[in-house]
Amino acid sequence: MDGLDFAVRYPFSSEARAFIGDLQLNEHIVELGTERILKALNGTASAKVIYHESDKKNEIASFAAARMILGYMHNSFITNKFAVNESKVMHGYLNRDDDTTVDKIGKTFGIHTQKENERQMLGIPVYISFSPKAPHYRLINRRIFNGLVEISNDEKKRLIEEAIKKHIEKIPMVSDPPVMIQDAAKRIIDELPKHQTKIEVKDNDHPPCIMKLLESVKKHENLSHPARWFLATYLLAISMEEEAIVGIYSNLPDFNEKITRYQISHAKKKGYSVPSCATVTTYGLCCAICRIGTPIRWHQLDKSNKEALRK
Amino acid sequence: MIDGNDLQKIRAIFAKYYDTAEFKIAALEQREFGIGNRKKIDSRHLSFANLSEFRNYLCNNTPLFVSHSTAYYEFPGATPIQKKQRRGADLVFDLDIHAEGKYGAYEKLDDVKQDLQRLANDFIKNDFGIKKEHILQVFSGNRGYHVHVRDPAYLDLGSEERRELVDYVMGQGLNYLDFFIESDTKPARLLGPRPDEGGYRGRFARQTIKALMEKPSEISRIFSNKEKRDFFISGVNEGNWSRMSFKYDDLKKRLAHVAETLPVRCVDTDVGVTQDLSKLIRVPNSIHGETGWIAKIIDDIEKFDPLKDAFIETKNKETMKIKFTEDVPELVLMGETKEAFKKDDEKEFPMPLAIFYVLKGSANISDQKSGK
Q1: Which pTM was predicted?
Q2: I need a labelling partner for A111 at 20 to 30 A (CA). Which of A65, A100, A124, B214 fits?
């Protein structure tokens, strides 16, 4: 793959920065950057095929412009949505690219794998920094040897996706950008979906694990599938209205109203019970030692116990 | 409540110790310090430019407790905490034991020591691959131990990642049934972990073999037969767990109690020591103000006996007379059995032992002598 194509696919790379070093910000690039953000917000970001060299350079620059807009907007909801969607698109590229390219991208985040007897191994600190929160990825369920974790090729790509997401999320604040960036920010605000429901946590009276998930949702952080499922069963169990639950989930960076609505009503219809604390621990979502067996039993604790556990 | 005059005397003893105490505080100038008298930490955000400044502070102020941050900071004395600018933090594990009564924990310290050895050797060295020179094992000065890990690769981990490591050590979410799969041959063989594997898999296989050798009947009476046992073990060594006559699910169930022995149980996660990046931890080789014991850096854990080795050493065999203000149970201290004492008993002890009872709030100083 030629260097320019590489840069188009992975616009955060140093190669990409080199290509657009001498490019001036202009209306067209800002427009492309705005589109990039709006697509992420609608969840329609997808891989692109571009032919002309100048278009390729503009495409790379549009990523930089998008970051500038986000840095100016300073809105964690939009930034997280952008990071999740962009990293998913790049995961798609990783799937199509050869091992050398995958390794090259991995190395920019410190994801250096090494071969030991035909097995691909990665250092524990790097592994736990980028592994998704899912039982399968938990360190305890992995093959470990002398500071290294065995991972497959697909898992490596998933870890790189996570690393890209974390990297994109870190956007420096931009305080006084050119007017065209400010205008783009206004346009994005105008086009935002209007039904963002505020989360009302009644008296903050939920077990610590649930509080933590709700905090994450508030900050528009992405939740793993088990986390979403756990939260939904809990909210249904305390008789929250389906509509209100959808409202809460609308804060997630990859919110899709149709799918969310279907899944929640499905969970309600099936009457799934709230998982036990042991299961929640398996998901890696337990964050206190309440000794209540199942999170729902929180509501049977007396006030002083609850307060002690909240500390 | 400890008598004010007694505390004055004890502080003088602390000051004398601190005058020559050996500290090994890596990057001291990048750490935040906290001191305590009424509680373990009364004030924090202190910082020192070098060891002699720190030593002077201890000798002049002699707090009952002194802690330093596990984190390294650009500006350790700055407040609020965001302004300190963190540059990584040691990975720290806190092992301790809770027991009934003021003195109940001390007889269980040996259990904590065993856990400490497993934590350091099996988990930190073997599984996490951390070299010995990056591991500092320290007695906490009271009911347990601290392990400070200073491997550069681990210093930048965030709180969530540290939690993952604690969960790993504590066996949270461990499902040993997932270690097994059945082969697609006919008849299907039960494939499982081999003893030479790393992590929980290898530990499980090794522990199973150990259990079979030591107490075979706890798994099944069939394994009391040496031939059958050896045949089964020869399979396990190759990852083949089928060389026996049980149904596979039955065998797996019988191994549940083996799985339970694998994690380290007394890691204290209640207070979130490992996850808390702004945590202050007792300065290694400082004195714990509830016991007068030194939070000793341990060179040889096998030989270390906290109830003997953690007492302050006094050169001139000073003694001290104390009067008990409450009943105290029998304890093994300084290598010998100290009988139980009753309220109002008056006794003369070597000074370090006397201040132990005073700091525990069980006695008052009645007289201090310096013997030759």
Answers
A1: 0.80
A2: A65
